[in-house]
Amino acid sequence: MPRKTAARTARLASIPLGVAGRAVGGWGKRLAGQSADEVSAELSARTAEQLFAVLGQLKGGAMKFGQALSVFEAAVPDEMAEPYREALTKLQSAAPPMTKAATHRVLAQQLGRGWADRFADFDDVPAAAASIGQVHKATWHDGRVVAVKVQYPGADEALLSDLRQLQRFSRLFQPFVPGLEVKPLLRELSDRMTEELDYRAEADNQRAFAKAFDGDDNVLVPKVVASAPKVTVTEWVDGKPLARIIRDGGKAERDHAGRLLCEFHFSSPARAGLLHSDPHPGNFMITPDGRLCVIDFGAVARLPDGLPRPLGMMTRLSLDGNSDRLLRLMRDEGFVRPGMKIEAEDVLSYLAPFAEPAAVEKFHFTRRWMQRQAERVGDLRGQDFKTGRSLNLPPQYLLIQRVTAGATGILCQLDAEVGMREIISRWQPGFADLD
């Protein structure tokens, strides 16, 4: 991992410079007679290729940002989406690996000089790589097959440096995620990065989830075998990555994966007092026996009392069309700034489409549905844009909102049909039992 701030900044700066250079080149090609559509398609493909290369090679905060963006690609208009979709999806599970020597140094520092004696077998070729670490398949000394996650040297320096620099270029990334503001996403990622760097804390989170879902018919959380500040050893689980199901899964398989994802998202705060807060397809897979396997617990929201009741009440009031009570509740909870003049019907019009999945017995999540929501709230001339600018997202709801939006993005990528109303009624306080 490149560690020096100057070197990382130079690579990140190459993204906007590359875009500008390709734009000039494209203008020249149009003068030479090439069609606008051909030039646009070529520019999009080359920009996407560079985006993946830079964010993936840097790993750290750059790759973490790319993974966060990847779940929102469903909102990108179809005419420009495909190149970015492919590039951003790669960031969910791919990155250049560490050398064998570097991996062994980290293992020796974290597990002791005799670290190899703790394993019956250790595969030096990483099975997967992510933003701040890579995973190796190994056999523990007692015969258990395990996953060994090793943090990249210099990850701590790179993470915050990347995210600071990316904020300077945030406008460049806005077209990839219409309807989502990039700067607040970067700020929120920065706030949570220090948590993800401590693998001991992640191991504690995973133990809590594993205990809560132990023996569950629908969800499998691998048990932690050993942990250190920069290394974790957990049970190995085989399964089909969600990214592959998104790409070529059949309807029944996609619907099944979507239902399990929804059930996990809404039930975990009540069952574990925690919300898994890194929703991208690289962190989920379907096991051969049909369960959802969940990995990577570095980022969680602590919700000891479960999901906040006002969120369920807001969803239900939106469906019921009770605009006056909805506005009062939102004012009480801080979603409307004190003294802000806003019409109750405008608030209802803004929120009601987001509540559509809970309005019917089964809802079909599609890219087109997500694109319509992004277009609606992002239209500078529309009332929904003005209403959205008048609303406030209280800090205690920020992470929940981002995780829910990310999970929704995955559902739209899956093109899944899910019985959301039953799941929300069961697990979201305030929806079925509105006072």
Note down, in words, how this protein is organized.
This protein has three domains: 5-92 and 165-177, no CATH class; 100-155 and 193-235, Phosphorylase Kinase, domain 1 (2-Layer Sandwich); 309-427, no CATH class. The protein contains 18 helices and 14 strands. The chain has helices spanning 5-31, 36-58, 60-70, 78-90, 100-111, 155-168, 170-173, 182-197, 199-212, 242-248, 251-272, 309-320, 323-332, 344-351, 367-378, 383-390, 395-414, 420-427; strands at 119-122, 128-129, 133-140, 145-151, 219-220, 224-228, 231-235, 240-241, 274-276, 284-286, 292-294, 300-302, 363-364, 417-418. The strands form four sheets. Strands 1, 2, 3, 4, 6 and 7 form a six-stranded antiparallel beta sheet that branches. A four-stranded mixed beta sheet has the order 5-11-10-8. A hairpin with a 4-residue loop joins strand 3 (133-140) and strand 4 (145-151). The longest helix is centred in the N-terminal third of the chain and has 27 residues, at 5-31. It is globular, with a radius of gyration of 22 Å. It starts with a helix and ends in an 8-residue tail after the last helix. Belongs to the protein kinase superfamily. ADCK protein kinase family. One of its GO terms (molecular function) is ATP binding. Keywords: ATP-binding, Kinase, Nucleotide-binding, Transferase, Ubiquinone. InterPro entries: ABC1_dom, ADCK3_dom, Atypical_kinase_ADCK, Kinase-like_dom_sf.
